[in-house]
Each structure stands twice: as structure tokens, then as C-alpha cells.
Amino acid sequence: MSEIKQYAALEYLVDVLQKAIIGSKVKQLTPDESAIIDGNASIRLKQQPENNGNPASIFIRDEKEILYSEELLEEVYKIQERKDYPAGLKAALAPANVIINGINIEAELIFHAVRDQFYALNGSYEFQKFIERDNQKLKFNMTFGDELTFALIVTNEADLVAIEAVIGESVPSAVKAVINADMETVRLEINSEFKKA
Prior knowledge:
alpha+beta; 6 helices; elongated; single chain; 4-stranded antiparallel sheet; 6-stranded mixed sheet
């Protein structure tokens, strides 16, 4: 069986990830799709060219969050900054939009950074579950202490990261003030990290 000729950007990203995930194997499915097999788990990558003039997108389905557990999100995020790719590949990689589990790679990194910042500020915060995951916008529940659950909305806009807490009206104002102050601290930190002018 002959090897499938794949899109250059997809082939390069698959190669980088396969080398980083020790013991993994690659299965090329079609010219625009591959799977990286790691034991019983797999990461599926599919490149989808856009017809409307927008750059191509590479969609990654990573249900077991291997990229996060192997600390490869940053590697994927910085793929366009690498210097070791073959000649001619830079043009294919530069405009590529990488989407992981329905979320833009930068928004995914921002989510993890926001969650980690809340954890660092106060051990009473705990991530519960996603309510909404929509490319550049994440809405998820967090708890504060044993009883209070609130929603946090993180939106990755072009020039800033917006963070909003949705806290029930019955929550004491002192608790709201603590959460809002922490949210503002996190917002400033995340914007300075991801949206440097």
C-alpha cells in the first residue's frame, strides 16, 4: 500500500506531535486526515482548506486530552515560530488556524492559564465543567469553597481577553467582592501574557 500524500502543514504538525509523544504511531487516513495512536487513545488531525479566502484550518480531536497531559499545547501553539521546518513550509504553516476540540489553540491555552491563575490565587477555587465551548469563547462552572458554584465566561478577542463572572444574586456581597477582585487580577495577568502590544 502506498503512502498517502498529505497537505504539507498537516504532515508537519503530525510529524512534530508523533515525535513528541513517545511510542505513538501515525495512521494516514486521507490526504487531509491523520490519526496519532497512543496506546488505546488517539488524536485525529484534519486539515480543511477554506474556500472564502480565509486560511486553512487544522482541526484536532483529542478526547483524552493527550496534548494537555503531555504538555504539548504550547508546542502546537508555537508551531508557526519554529525554525526547523523544510523550505517552502513556512508559507503553508503561517496562516494555519489550529482548532483543538472545537476551540482555537490560543483560546485553549488561555483557558488553562485562567484556571491555573485562579488556583494560584486561592486554593478554594475548583474547575467543575464546561457549559459552552465555541472557538474563541469558553463558559464553564467553577466552585469557590464548598458551596458556591458560579459561571466564568472567557472570550478571546483579537486585542484582549475578556473575563466575566456570573454569580447568583443570593451570594453575600463580601464573597462577590473577593471573586470579582480575583477575576480582575487574573484578567490583567492573562492580557499581559497573551495580548502584548
